[in-house]
Every structure is written in C-alpha cells, then in structure tokens.
C-alpha cells in the first residue's frame, strides 16, 4: 500500500522547462509546491571542463535509460510495434532540468498562422485544400493572446537576437533582451547569398547568451564562449539558458519548492471529476507513495504526459477508427530531410567552433508565407545555416562517391573536415487520423507498466514538402559559391534508427472543443478541472520550428491559470 504524504497546494510532475517555469511563478506567489523528477539532481558544476563527446553525445549520459523504460513504435496498425532499444530518431532527457539541459538553445516563436491553421487555410484556399485524413485544427488561442507570455520567457531566459524581425514572423511587443550572436564567415556567406536571391535572412534567436545578462528575477549569467558543446551537453558557463540556472534557483530561494528526485510518478489519482493527488515510486527502493494535492500539473515530455493519463484512465483514449477520444490524438514529429551540402576546395571554415543556436535563418518558405495554391502540401519550413560546433567523432563529411574506407576516404576526410557547410530545412509536420499514441499491449517498463506506443509514418504531404524545400536549399548553396553542392531531396518511410529531431508533439491537445481536445487554452483538462497538462503534448500540429519558445510561453500562461484556479476554482474558459 502506498505511503500517504502531507498534502500540498500543487504537485508538478517533471522538473524541466515547464515544471521550472510554473514552480517559480507559483512559489513567488506564495504557494507550496512539490516537484517530482524521476532522474537525479544536476547543477552547472557537473559540467566544469567536461567536453566529453563520447560520454555525452555518443553514450547519452543525460538521457533516459532505455533498458528501464522506452517507446515502442510501428508505421501502421498492420505492423507489430517493437521497442526502441538504442537511441536514434529522438533523445529522451532524464534528470533535473530535463531536455532543457541538453537542448541547443534555438529559439523560435511559432507563427500567427500556426495557432489558427485550419481557419487560415480554409479562408485562403478553401476546405478542399485539407486532404482526407488530415486532422487539422485551430489551437483555441491566437498568437496575439500568447504574445505577452513569449515576452516573459524571453526576458527570463535572456534570449539573444536581432532587434528587428522580418515580415514573415509574428510581431514582437518587446525586443529580445540581448543582441544577436556573432556572425561567422559561413553565416555571412549564407546571408549574402539568400539576400541576392530576394530572401530575408536574419540571425537565429538564441538562448545562448550573446552578452552577460541579469534577468528580472536577478539571475546573473555569463556570455557564451562558443565552445561548440551545447546539444547533448550541459553548459559549464551557464550561458545556455536551462531550468537549473534560471527558474529553479528562483523557486528554491522562496523556500516553498521541494524537489523530489528519483521519484517516478505512475498515476494521477482521481474520482472521475477531480484529482486528489499523484502516486509515485521512489526509484532506488521501489517504495510507493501517494502525494495529495489541490492541483496536479503534468509537465513532463510528450510521451510521459500521454502515458500517465492513459495509465490513470483520465480522459478518453483516442480511437483512430471512430476518431473519438482525445488522449493520444494528433501525434506529430518533424520533417527533416531537405538539405544541401556545399563543398569548398578553396576555403576553410572553423566549423569546430560554434554554439547550439549560432546560425542564420529565413522564413520565406515557412508557414503560409508563400502561395500553396498549386502545391501538394501545407505549411513549410525554416531554412538555416547553423554553426553548432562539429565534434570529431560524429562528423566526418566526404563527397558522394567517396569510398567508405581506405586511402581515398582518409584523404577526403582530412580535406573536407572544415570545408563543408550545410543549408537545411526544418519542416513542419501535419496531423493525420492514423498517427497517434496509445499503451502497448505487450511491452512493459521496469515497474511492470505498459510502455507508450507510437503509430506514425511520413505521408505524401511530407515527401512533397521535402522535395520542394530541397530545391530552395540548393539554390542558396549554389549562390554561396561552393565548388560542389549535393542536394538531399527525398523522404521515405519513417525509421526510428537514425537521429532526426527530438521535436515530438501532440497526444494531449489544446483546443476550444472538448470533443477534439484534451485541454483548454490554459492547458486545464476538460475532464478534471484541477489537472493541467503542459508542454509540447498540447500542440495540435508541429511547426517548421523548434518547440521550446511556444512550450515556454504556454507554461507562463498555465502558471497564471493555476493561480486563478487556486483563487476561485472551476473552469478557466
């Protein structure tokens, strides 16, 4: 029997960006909060002088142990799902700070179009533009309504970026708090070439600080050193914004946050209308506990949020045959594949240096910024040249046709080690009725609980998108004056083996209709008024961007909603 703990105002499951933001806001307002993290604690000191590519990038030090819990996947319902036993397609963070510790820091607000995507699509092209099976829907909130919360996240994190934005992105009521990152020779090549083609490049907004910064909570952080150890690594300088150096210290300083590490929440306890708390396992001992709370907030990753709700029998599971139910609906990924590599015989670049969000980008072919009337896809992609720091184990570029071993391979490896630049598109992913998450009927985790199962494949929509965007990346790369360019313009069946993107979304969608969404625009559950489910699981589709900015903005809005709920109760919309 689970040991019952003393009741608290708020229980937060997951201590990454979402949990950290909400914990900071609620504790500053005087509420007592318990935060659950199933991994270990972390701090900046853990990463001092630890530029260990093998340990972190190749052996996944900061990631979830897949032998204890993983994801099963299949491309369609005719295939038996199998577990992901080694990391490939995406990385699942574990430990205090979650994926907010090992992210690159690339920061993009979703476009105004994204939040009203169905309405805007029908308005411009008619309802027939949406293909059969695509479960496109509006988010139940507009860009303008969410804009002040983007500002809150940016001021907290110290986002660096151009003081002005292009016509292709949403309007900003306040500029980024620090200026753009440095411009490298490679970035200048990209920007000059794109501008000559009539496009609108700008510096990538970055959570890697361009300058020393003190945020509104008084947190001081130093500027980025451009060491190139961002993605899959913790930042030894604290220059990359992460929950452990921004929001969590603020919450802990109030004395009203208790963080319980090695605590794996397995279930929300409820009576069908309201939650009474959460049940969790103390991982080292296997002991079970029950934590009563007035409000329960799921703030973990996409798969965990969906899985906990399904294990708790809270909310109606999605049925792809009838398209009824909402938990597990509209799972989306990211469509990466359109890219062009530029090889130079006469130029070298210091590509071993960089930062996770050092780059130049453009949005001319993102969202609905271009005419889709004669195209067989919706949405688009952000196109960028990034200089994130190419580390020696993972990067060994050679031109097509090079032997995979021997004298020629060695010679080309040495020659092109710092002579290759990549222009790549990060594409959107639209939802389809047959893409969803549910509980696997066969495979279980180390505690005997069913794993989450993903059913997903790339569609014709995605393949057409990649083909179109690849031509755009090649045009830019050709204009950059390379000796040779090689385009990648095809997408086949989704394969979970190679790394692609950790930008999974959906499963607990937000919206205005309880029949097609699980949470309202405060991320409050329709089926349980004191349960809030936050993070990218709320996205109704995935944009041509990294999700963190929108995740962060929604977290600030949720914190506001929880305060309102604690004051008066009831539905917030």
TrEMBL record:
Residues 437-555 form the Glucose-methanol-choline oxidoreductase C-terminal domain. InterPro entries: FAD/NAD-bd_sf (IPR036188), GMC_OxRtase_C (IPR007867). Keywords: FAD, Flavoprotein, Oxidoreductase. It comes from the Bacteria. The keyword Mitochondrion does not apply. Pfam families: GMC_oxred_C. GO terms for molecular function: oxidoreductase activity, acting on CH-OH group of donors. SUPFAM superfamilies: FAD-linked reductases, C-terminal domain (SSF54373), FAD/NAD(P)-binding domain (SSF51905). Belongs to the GMC oxidoreductase family. This is GMC family oxidoreductase.
């Amino acid at each position: 029997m689970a040991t019952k703990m003393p009741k608290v105002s708020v229980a937060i499951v997951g201590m990454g960006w979402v949990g950290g933001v909400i914990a900071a806001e609620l504790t500053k307002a005087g509420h007592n909060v318990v935060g659950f993290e199933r991994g270990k604690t972390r701090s900046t000191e853990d990463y001092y002088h630890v530029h260990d590519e093998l340990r972190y990038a190749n052996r996944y030090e900061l990631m979830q142990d897949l032998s204890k819990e993983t994801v099963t996947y299949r491309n369609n319902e005719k295939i038996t799902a199998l577990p992901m036993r080694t990391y490939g397609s995406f990385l699942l963070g574990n430990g205090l700070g979650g994926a907010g510790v090992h992210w690159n820091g690339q920061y993009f607000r979703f476009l105004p179009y994204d939040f009203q995507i169905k309405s805007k699509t029908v308005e411009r092209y008619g309802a027939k533009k949406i293909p059969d099976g695509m479960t496109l829907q509006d988010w139940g909130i507009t860009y303008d309504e969410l804009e002040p919360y983007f500002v809150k996240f940016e001021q907290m994190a110290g986002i660096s970026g151009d003081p002005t934005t292009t016509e292709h992105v949403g309007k900003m009521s306040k500029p980024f708090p620090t200026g753009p990152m440095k411009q490298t020779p490679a970035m200048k090549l990209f920007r000059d070439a794109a501008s000559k083609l009539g496009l609108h490049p700008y510096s990538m907004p970055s959570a890697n600080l361009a300058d020393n910064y003190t945020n509104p909570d008084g947190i001081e952080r130093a500027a980025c050193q451009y060491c190139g150890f961002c993605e899959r690594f913790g930042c030894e300088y604290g220059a990359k914004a992460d929950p452990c150096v921004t929001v969590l210290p603020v919450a802990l300083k109030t004395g009203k946050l208790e963080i319980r590490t090695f605590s794996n929440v397995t279930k929300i306890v409820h009576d069908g209308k309201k939650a009474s708390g959460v049940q969790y396992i103390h991982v080292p001992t296997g002991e079970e506990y029950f934590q009563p709370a007035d409000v329960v907030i799921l703030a973990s990753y996409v798969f965990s949020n969906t899985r906990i709700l399904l294990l708790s029998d809270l909310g109606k599971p999605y049925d792809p045959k009838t398209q009824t139910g909402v938990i597990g609906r509209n799972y989306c990924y990211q469509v990466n594949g359109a890219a062009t590599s530029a090889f130079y015989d006469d130029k070298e670049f210091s590509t071993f240096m960089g930062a996770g969000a050092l780059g130049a980008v453009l949005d001319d072919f993102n969202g609905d910024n271009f005419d889709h009337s004669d195209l067989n896809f919706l949405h688009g992609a952000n196109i960028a040249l990034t200089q994130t720091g190419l580390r020696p184990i993972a990067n060994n570029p050679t031109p097509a046709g090079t032997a995979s071993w021997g004298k020629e391979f060695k010679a080309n490896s040495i020659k092109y080690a710092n002579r290759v630049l990549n222009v790549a598109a990060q594409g959107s992913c639209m939802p389809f009725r047959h893409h969803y998450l549910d509980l696997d009927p066969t495979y279980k985790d180390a505690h005997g609980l069913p794993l989450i199962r993903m059913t997903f494949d790339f569609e014709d929509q995605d393949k057409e998108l990649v083909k179109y965007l690849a031509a755009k990346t090649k045009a830019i790369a050709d204009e950059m004056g390379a000796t040779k360019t090689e385009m990648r313009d095809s997408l086949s069946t989704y394969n979970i083996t190679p790394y692609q993107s950790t930008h999974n979304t959906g499963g607990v969608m937000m919206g205005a209709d309880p029949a097609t969404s699980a949470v309202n625009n405060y991320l409050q559950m329709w089926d349980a008024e004191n349960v809030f489910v936050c993070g990218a699981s709320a996205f109704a589709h995935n944009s041509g961007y990294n999700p963190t900015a929108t995740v962060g903005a929604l977290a600030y809005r949720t914190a506001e909603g929880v305060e309102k709920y604690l004051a008066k109760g009831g539905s917030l919309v």
